[in-house]
Specification:
Length: 495
């Protein structure tokens, strides 16, 4: 019988996508740090991505292990090694990935049967709906991890569970989202989130299963902190009819150089070189530009973004995830022109490390939830440049609720995963204006920066011992102990 955190064994199922996997690995380390045993179940390619972080945790004597399961890639028609959403060659194959993920249920059950100590709780991404039944078969709770914060989660809940969208005719007209404490205006296209994927064959059933499984889950774990969105934490718990534990920003759990420099993937620049470059700049003078792990810009937009940064007089670090022959040629001349104040990172940036440096004073972000929260945690104002999925909702939180951001003016979402459909161009003049406005230290810019700084301080306090997120982690663990105590059936009798 579990009576303290050290008796608990959490089994984590992270979705194979950077924006879901990175915070789950942080959650694993937070739980292990609180003396629980943690098993992460994932696939070999994904395990390799976070191996350095897990190895460091094991060296620090945390009770963490990773168990690798093979996806049935050939069976569902996916290429060998295609184990992460950022590797899927075409959006039409997303549904094949979900089919492969479904096939992990049986092997996962085998793994759980053999775990010692026996599992006591599953924390799984909402995109593994079968984990609710799996947990019930073992007589243990399943907690859902969904990705976004409470504001966005609640907005999505309203969009999915009411007919608010069906009453709106045009995709592009703005309407006020009902049922939330703030006045939020957005378009149907911005609220829709999943675009084409939702309409694909088989996905309707998947979404239905996901929502049923969420209903059957025992609680919700959110990477956020109560002070950031207090009204929404409460409303979300009411809407879902379950406990919501905000336990973040999880990126603040470890501030060691390596943990910040090696998050998610090997970076395209040495972390020390990055810090050395930043050391030469004035406090809060640099803007960091990074658009996450999934979005891709057209060649024309890459050039326009670069020209917008060049037009402003602000020093910058710009992470370009993927380049083409055309952008490479253009970049070689560009880099030379901006070399005194611009640093270009190709591929993966050590984002959290960069944001932690005092020279960084602003962040141009695509508003993926992790990046949004990492910006909040760093205490910097943001230029919001959403692309798709929940990013437009996160933008509304930053711009309208927290009032710590300036929109770049992106209005029409890009088709998620459709690499050749980029939507309307954001012009260099708009980019320059938004960047300068966020970096401006006078008037509204000053007030925005002050608010951002205060949220950053609150985030740090929330994660410190005794802070709201620390306490919520304790409460979540206690809840698991209580749930287990209610279930008196020995596991072997469950089968
Ligand atoms: N990230 C990073 N370097 C990059 C791009 C992304 O470290 O060059 C990290 C970022 O810090 C965040 C995650 O990857 O933790 C991206 O998650 P987010 O929810 O912001 O966006 P997504 O990639 O899912 O769209």
């Amino acid at each position: 019988m579990a009576s303290s955190p050290k008796d608990l064994h959490f089994v984590l199922f992270p979705l194979m996508q950077q924006g879901h996997m990175i915070p789950m690995i942080d959650i694993a380390r937070i739980l292990a740090h609180r003396n629980a045993t943690v098993t992460i179940i994932t696939t070999p390619v994904n395990a390799t991505r976070f191996k350095p972080a897990i190895d460091r945790a094991i060296q620090a004597k945390l009770k963490i292990q990773v168990i690798e399961l093979q996806l049935a890639l050939a069976e569902v028609g996916l290429p060998e090694g295609c184990e992460n959403f950022d590797m899927i060659p075409s959006v039409d194959l997303f549904v094949n990935m979900y089919a492969a993920m479904d096939k992990l249920e049986k092997p996962s059950e085998e793994v759980l049967r053999q775990l010692t100590p026996a599992p006591s709780c599953i924390i799984s991404d909402n995109q593994f709906p079968w984990t609710t039944d799996l947990a019930h078969r073992f007589g243990i709770p399943r907690l859902v991890f969904h990705g976004p914060g409470c504001f966005t989660y609640l907005c999505l809940h309203i969009v999915v569970n009411t007919n608010v969208l069906s009453e709106i005719r045009s995709d592009l007209d703005y309407f006020v989202l009902p049922g939330i404490p703030d006045r939020i205006e957005l378009t149907k296209a911005q609220a829709g989130g999943w675009g084409k994927i939702r309409e694909m064959e088989g996905m309707e059933d998947f979404f239905e299963r996901m929502s049923m499984a969420e209903e059957g889950a025992d609680g919700v774990v959110v990477n956020s902190f109560e002070e950031l969105e207090p009204n929404y934490v409460k409303r979300l718990a009411e809407a879902k009819g379950k406990k919501v534990w905000c336990i973040g920003p999880v990126s603040l759990h470890s501030r060691s150089f390596l943990d910040m420099a090696e998050r998610g993937k090997k970076a395209g620049i040495d972390g020390h070189d990055c810090l050395k470059w930043l050391d030469t700049k004035d406090p809060r003078s640099v803007i960091f530009v990074c658009l996450g792990s999934m979005s891709s810009l057209s060649n024309e937009q890459v050039l326009e973004l670069g020209l917008g940064l060049e037009l402003s007089s602000i020093p910058f670090i710009w992470c370009i995830r993927s380049t083409t022959d055309e952008t490479d040629i253009w970049l070689s001349g560009y880099e030379e022109r901006v070399k005194d104040r611009g640093l270009i990172v190709r591929g993966w940036a050590p984002q959290v490390l960069i944001l932690s440096h005092e020279a960084v004073g602003g962040f141009v972000s695509h508003c993926g939830w992790n990046s949004t929260l990492e910006g909040v945690a760093a205490g910097v104002p943001m230029v919001t440049y959403p692309q798709f999925a929940d990013q437009f909702l996160n933008e509304r939180l930053v711009v309208d609720v927290l009032k710590t951001g300036v929109s770049i003016g992106m209005e029409v979402p890009v088709a998620i995963g459709e690499k050749d459909k980029f939507g309307a161009l954001v012009k260099k003049e708009n980019i320059k204006t938004a960047v300068e406005s966020v970096m401006n230290d006078g008037g509204e810019g000053k007030a925005r920066r002050e608010r951002a700084r205060e949220f950053g301080e609150m985030a740090t306090k929330a994660m410190a011992e005794g802070g709201s997120s620390y306490v919520n982690t304790t409460l979540m663990m206690q809840d698991v102990i209580e749930e287990l105590a209610k279930n008196t059936k020995p596991i072997q009798d469950v089968f």
